[in-house]
Amino acid sequence: MTETSARPHRQHRPSGPAHRVRALPPWSLVAAGTLAGGLLGAAYGVLQPPVYSATAYVVAVPTEQSDTASALGFAQAYGRVATQLAVLGDAQVWAGVPVETLQSGVRTATSPDAPMVAITGTSSRADTAADMANAVSRALTRHARDSQATTHVELQQFARAVEPAEPSSASPAVTGLVGASAGGLLGALALLVRPRGDREQSGRTAAVPGPTVAADARPAP
User: Fold this and answer.
1) Secondary structure of the chain: what % helix, strand, coil (to 5)?
2) 52-86: burial string, b at 16+ Cβ within 10 Å, e else
C-alpha cells in the first residue's frame, strides 16, 4: 500500500517598506493624519504672534430737523466712510501709526436696527489696538461734525475702546484641535481613495491548503 500526499507549496511573502506600509491596519491612516495635524496646529498656535482687538462705538443722533430713520441711514454711510483715506489721514496722527497700518488693522460694522457704528482695531499690541479704534472714531466724529449743518445728524462717541486683557487670536489648544480634525479628515479621504487592490489585499485572509486524503492502492485480482 502506497500513500501519496501533496506537499503545500510555500508562497513567497514580499518584504520591504512598501509591503510593511500595506500591512498596517486601515485606521492607521486616520490616526497618523490626526496626530500630524494636531502637532502642526499646536505649533502654529505657539509660533504665531498674538493679535489683540479693541472696539469703539459711535452713535448717530438726529437733530431737531431730522428723524431716526435719517440717523439710521447716515450711520450706515459713516460705517463705510470710516475706513476711507479722508478719515484715516487724520486718525494716523492720534493713533501714532501709518495710514497703511490703519487700512489693514481697522474694520467697521453697522446694524440695520440701530444707528451705531462699531470701529474695531487689531494689532499685535493691546494698547495700539485701542489707540487705533479710538483715533478712527475721533476722526469720524470730527468729519461728521463738519457736515452736520447739511446732514442734520450728529455723530457722538458712545463708548471708547479699552485695552484688551487677552488676545483675540486662537490659542494653541484651539489651533491644535482644528489641525487634528483636518488631519483626521485627510486621513479618512486617503483611506477612501487608495487603490482597490490594496483594500482587497488588506481584507483578504491567507488560504491554507488542506491535507490530501491518502489513496489505497489495491492489487488487481
Assistant:
1) 50, 15, 35
2) bbbbbbbbbebeeebeeebbbebbeebbebbbeee
Strand order of the β-sheet with 153-159 is: 106-110, 116-123, 52-62, 153-159
The pTM of this model reads 0.61
Cα–Cα distances (Å) from 25 to 20, 44, 187, 191, in that order, read 10, 30, 13, 11
- Here the cell at position 48 is 504665531
Task: List pLDDT tens digits, range 55-89.
Answer: 999 999 998 888 888 899 999 999 999 999 989 99
Helices (H), 56-195: 68-81, 85-95, 99-105, 126-146, 148-151, 172-193
The distance in angstroms from the start CA to the end CA of the chain is 15
> According to the model, what pLDDT value does residue 182 have?
81
Q: How far is CA 123 from CA 15, 45, 80, 143, in A?
A: 56, 17, 21, 25
Cα 207 from Cα 65, distance rounded (Å): 94
Is the CB of residue 94 less than 8 Å from the CB of residue 136? no
Cell numbers at 120, concatenated? 474695531
**Average pLDDT in the chain:** 77
Strands 52-62 and 106-110, sheet pairing:
unpaired
